[in-house]
Amino acid sequence: MPKGEKQEVRVLTASFKPGDKTVFHTHRFPVTVYVLEGAFTLEMEGMAPVKVSQGQAMMEPPHVRMTGYNRSNSDSLRVVVFYVSDPDTPFLDPLH
Questions:
Q1: What is the mean pLDDT of the chain?
Q2: What one-character DSSP code corresponds to residue 88?
């Protein structure tokens, strides 16, 4: 967690069509994902994939290379993301 005098809290929503995925990335601080609709699959480098369904939440660890998916061929995915960071910290750092 951030250790500075001030922290910034961001609450974001994201929608994924069937088959959509995020860019390959890392986060500088932990991210909490709550699934509103559908199922979210997170693939983290060196770890087994994690699937989170509607009504469930998960924590994405910082500094781990990852990508998130909507593995469904027919259902949409909607999530709420909570991110506590130092002020002006990017939400994610894309990897190439």
A1: 96
A2: T
**What is the C-alpha separation between 34 and 23, in angstroms, rounded?**
19
**Structural domain contains residue 25:** yes
Separation between Cα atoms, residue 42 and residue 45, nearest integer Å = 10
Q: Does residue 65 fall inside a structural domain?
A: yes
Strands laid side by side in the 66-69 sheet? 50-53, 39-44, 66-69, 25-26, 93-94
The total domain count for the chain is 1
Rounded Cα–Cα distance for residues 24 and 38 (Å): 21
3-state SS assignment for residue 60: strand
Query: What is the pLDDT, as a whole number, of residue 3?
Result: 81
Q: What residues of the chain score a pLDDT lower than 50?
A: none
Q: What is the pTM of this model?
A: 0.92
CATH number at residue 52: 2.60.120.10
